[in-house]
Amino acid sequence: MAAQIEIPARRGKATRLDAGQAIKITNTHGTQVVDFWAFVAGHLTEFVGMEHCRATWKRLFPVTGDHLYTNKRRALMTLEEDTSPGRHDTLMAPCDNERYGLLGCTEYHDNCRDNMHAGLAELGISVPYTPDSLNLFMNIPWQQDGSLSFDAALSKPGDYVVLRAQLDCIAVMSACPQDILDINSQKPVEAHFEILD
């Protein structure tokens, strides 16, 4: 049985995956958004691009069987299982300290951008940019007139997704620290992941 690894509340973690391995990301307590990124191992300028994914899916969020496509339009991962209600966001940029400033914070606030870089740094990796994230379990309803809202996540405790690597890659996750908007429905809490063969 694979070991579960904690993604601490408000923090990020990264892991390497070989082609054919999968990562299971569990929303341990439910309603916790987990920002997700994936980079091609050895070619860090190639990473999953949300705009590239949407153009291929012709949808705003992935469903089981969909690939996650890179900015070079290669399939890097496949969404193999999803026990959640399936609402994931591909529109919103990962939160950053500047975003919290716009929301009224006057001091530094933990954020997903910095969590991504911190997670990579634990593996000895540094990149000078922050790609858009696949915001797992994040509920951003859209209306016909183009309006968007930040609504509470719909996932339940124990809901999970399984993403299988098509190429050697580096996966990065952040247990989103958002505690001003209602997307997490509670104070940010930890999530977990495990590697599956």
Can you tell me about this structure?
- The structure is a single chain.
- The protein has helices at 50-57, 97-102, 112-122, and strands at 5-7, 12-17, 22-27, 34-40, 43-47, 67-69, 75-82, 134-136, 159-165, 169-175, 191-196.
- The chain is of the alpha+beta class and 197 residues long.
- Strands 1-11-3-9-7-6 form a six-stranded antiparallel β-sheet. Strands 2, 4, 5, 8 and 10 form a five-stranded antiparallel β-sheet that branches.
- The protein has one domain (5-196).
Q: What is the fold's blueprint, element by element?
A:
Elements: E1 5-7, E2 12-17, E3 22-27, E4 34-40, E5 43-47, H1 50-57, E6 67-69, E7 75-82, H2 97-102, H3 112-122, E8 134-136, E9 159-165, E10 169-175, E11 191-196
Antiparallel strand pairs: 1-11, 2-10, 3-9, 3-11, 4-5, 4-8, 4-10, 6-7, 7-9
Q: How many beta-strand segments?
A: 11
Strand content: 25-35%
> How much helix is in the residues?
10-25%
Number of helices: 3
Q: How many separate domains make up the residues? A: 1
Order of neighbouring strands in the sheet with most strands: 1-11-3-9-7-6
Which structural traits does this protein have?
single chain, about 200 residues, alpha+beta, six-stranded antiparallel beta sheet, five-stranded antiparallel beta sheet, 3 helices, about 30% strand, globular
